[in-house]
Amino acid sequence: MSGGVLVAGIGNLFLGDDGFGVEVVRALSAHPLPDHVEVVDFGVRGVHLAYQLLDGYDTLVLIDAAARGGAPGTVYLIDAGEAGAGEAGADPPAGGAVLDGHHMSPDAVLALLGTLCAGTGSAPPRRTLVVGCEPASVEEGIGLSAPVAAAVPEAVRTVLELVRDAPRPGAAPDARTTAHTARELRRTP
User: Fold this and answer.
1) How far apart (Å, rounded) are the C-alpha atoms in residues 55 and 52?
2) Which domain holds residue 86?
3) Which residues pair with 75 in a beta bridge?
4) Is the CB of residue 65 less than 8 Å from the CB of residue 12?
């Protein structure tokens, strides 16, 4: 889908709140979306996400658990293109991405994408946004904790606002879209 928006749910359903992205994508399936928006549950398949991005998306919206020090269930909107937006202590691997299909963080996926784009002449997404949620527990177990489960509807609303405001393929972003993600939003349930 050249020029469109890819909404990617990522995470591991077997690690409690790490399944947040997968649950949000499941909830998004009940909502009509514009034709230029594609929603995919990638789970732990980070390599597949990197290769899908070679199709030329303008905007990538990652949905994932994001431990940033807030109260469990806090929903964050992070513009990954801004300085300091990455996870604390997460540096891209030296010399390119480490290819491990079962342990690829969003940072590793984007580093792999940079490597793949260089070899194919493709361009990475112009914008990468993260809709994250502060986890309560990422220990082994199936199901979200109560505060993270309660945050799923807020994350769905955030994604719906983003895709509603996203420019159609070939259009320039408007001031409303740029202002919407100019800062990190902290939302608590």
Assistant:
1) 6
2) 5-187
3) 133, 187
4) no
Q: What is the CATH number of the domain that holds 58?
A: 3.40.50.1450
pTM over 0.85: no
CB neighbourhood size of 118 (10 A) = 11
- Token pair for 146: 């109560």
Is residue 87 within a helix (H) or strand (E), and if so which, with residue range? none
Give the separation between CA 14 and CA 5, rounded to whole angstroms.
28
Indicate if the pLDDT at residue 28 is higher than 80.
yes
Computed on alpha carbons and rounded to an integer, the radius of gyration of the chain in Å comes to 15
Pairing state of beta strands 75-79 and 185-187? antiparallel
Crossing angle (nearest 10°) for helices 106-120 and 46-53: 40
Q: Judge contact between 58 and 4, C-beta under 8 A.
A: yes
Spatial distance between the Cα atoms of 179 and 51, rounded to a whole number of angstroms: 30
Q: Which two tokens stand for residue 104?
A: 């690829």
Give yes or no for a contact between 111 and 92, defined as CB atoms under 8 angstroms apart: yes
**pLDDT tens, 35-94?**
889 999 988 877 777 778 777 888 989 999 999 999 999 999 988 876 444 443 333 333
Total count of domains within the chain: 1
Whether the Cβ atoms of residue 148 and residue 20 lie closer than 8 Å to each other: yes
3-state secondary structure of 64: strand
Task: Specify the pairing of strand 127-133 against strand 59-65.
Answer: parallel
Task: Give dist(CA 167, CA 4) in Å, integer.
Answer: 9
